[in-house]
Specification:
With about 130 residues, the protein is mostly beta strands. It has a single domain (about 15-105), classed as Jelly Rolls (Sandwich), CATH 2.60.120. Helices cover about 10% and strands about 45% of the residues. A hairpin with a 2-residue loop joins strand 1 (about 30-35) and strand 2. The two termini are about 15 Å apart.
Length: about 130
């Protein structure tokens, strides 16, 4: 277990502070684990790629800014303090006009691009 993982179990985690430490947008970083689930913070701006996670739901909690989640046939806007869960297998694309900071909750080992892969695939299981 990474050193940061053991620290997170003994102290509260300041999500805004953790998000501020992330240097590159679209690079989720793990801040805590619960059972087989990871809590990740990420900074985003612009549009991501369309993808799906056939094996799991994916939760987005907006810390700052506004998240747009494009789904087949519609878009959902999620503001600061709001949570949205994309059901497993549903194709989606996240986007933000201006920077947004999010927490994502998903099982350990899930790639941010699902099975699409490509240049936007971030390393998985990187702690901050």
């Amino acid at each position: 277990m990474p050193e940061s993982a053991s620290v997170s179990k003994t102290q509260p985690i300041n999500l805004a502070q953790k998000a501020a430490l992330i240097e590159q947008q679209w690079s989720p970083r793990v801040v805590a684990e619960m059972n087989d689930y990871q809590f990740k913070v990420v900074r985003i701006e612009g549009e991501f790629i369309w993808h799906a996670h056939p094996e799991t739901d994916e939760a987005f909690l907006v810390l700052e800014g506004t998240l747009r989640i494009d789904l087949p046939g519609r878009s959902v806007h999620v503001g600061a303090g709001e949570l949205y869960v994309v059901p497993r297998g549903i194709e989606h694309r996240t986007a933000a006009q201006g920077e947004a900071k999010l927490m994502m909750i998903e099982p350990r080992g899930i790639l941010n691009t699902g099975h699409e892969g490509g240049a936007r695939t971030a390393d998985s299981d990187v702690w901050i």
